[in-house]
Amino acid sequence: MTGRQIGLNLGLLAVLMVLLGFIYWQHTGARAVPGLIEALQSNDVQAQLLAAQGLKDIGVQAQAAVPLLLELATADGRSLLHSEAAGALPSIDLSAARKVMLGWLPKLQDPDPQVRRDAAAVLGALGPVAKPAVHSLLGVVNDPNTVVRDRVVRALGAIALPSDIVMRGLTQALRDPEWTVRYAAVTQFSYNGASSPESLAILRELTQDPNQTVARLAQSAVDSGSRPISVSVHLLTLDQLTDHTYPLVQLARIGPGAVEAVPKLSSILAADKPLERYLAACALETMGPVAKDAAPALQRSLEDADPVVREAVAEALEAIENIKGRAL
Amino acid sequence: MNGQESSSRLTTFTVIVYWGCILLGLGIPWFATIAVDILKHDQSLVQATHQLQLHLFAPGYNLFLIAIFNAVPFILFAVFTLFHLGLAPPEDRALCGRRGAGVLVAAIGLIGLTAWTHVMTLWYPDAQGALAFLFLPVLLMGLMPIGYAIGRGVGTLIFR
Known about the structure:
The complex is a heterodimer of chains A (328) and B (160). Chain A has 19 helices and no strands. With 328 residues, chain A is mostly helical. Chain B is mostly helical and 160 residues long. In chain B, 82% of the residues lie in helices and 0% in strands. Chains A and B meet through helix 1 and helix 3 of A and helix 1 and helix 3 of B.
């Protein structure tokens, strides 16, 4: 081959690589939003589900999709898309996620068990942003319908905050007569590691559960409960992962014991993603007075652009100051 | 066969291996996805292609990125082939034959292992299955010189 022929083939390879890079660039980040919105509007449920997941990944830059996601998440009737569309919203727009929560909360009392089940699933999909829904979910933790109870338990696990109240509901579900519900409850302890002395005692009993699946998982939950993940590991995860949601929720669940995380959480109050700012404020709230060093950062965050973050910041300041007052 | 014809055949062979490796490196993950959808999940070709299109950039699937990642060792091998065969003296038929055999066996090894890994990973899905897509390119880089050495050895026996 001549040098020219070799050069031509290498040049064409370079063109191909540039083209592939351009295609990838076109389909990621904010540039992908119009295409994903189009997919959300299609009649292909699978395309809609994947589009919602894609928009969730893009986050704040997918603002243009919020009205459509809101519409899909709150649409009447049965839809596979309710939970997926709702699940996409917290990373894009916290206020829209709260609107979905408010839309579904009354449906927890619906006479139709399918509607109650869907309501619990949607609230769970919203994650920690649906914190104000926890009390309503606790009200249906003894629902006569097994599937509804199962969804309620999973929703409580997904919302996770406030951890003491969620823990109460999950501990109650560990005694459920139906093994699927007990399994769902044990799962929350097994994979998240956090447990109270009371729940740990019940989990130990459940290691003798007549259902082997529950018994095995309970053993795993007891093991992880006796070896909780340390705060430093969560801090390390915060530094290494791009998605900070999980470690922030875990720190919020630990409460005052996570005091060494206060400086990091204070810095996250200025993060770009509203969900991270919200979770940082929630974590500081659960810590109470030991998080007093975060007060200046929280004061600054009272002017946060997002009303849900502002609300969480105010609650955090209140938790720090109230308990501080009591201690004095 | 005169020298010019021999040179032209070598050039054609080089270009075919070069572009074949690049395109198969990119395409095998997608072909495997389509094949498994058709054979295992009883989908039509149109449905399987639509599935592929939906999952190209979908979070958790990223079939586009998997293809790019998979293509890396193939591209490196293709560039090696372009220089190794492209700069071989066409008048030395024995040398060209030995080099050709080495490249061909290495290419078949790369393609075969990639196709088998992708089909098996999709056919028997597993939570850790995606790790195969990460390790495969590294494995292929190691396999490349071995395949070439075997082919070159065979070529030495054939082209004396």
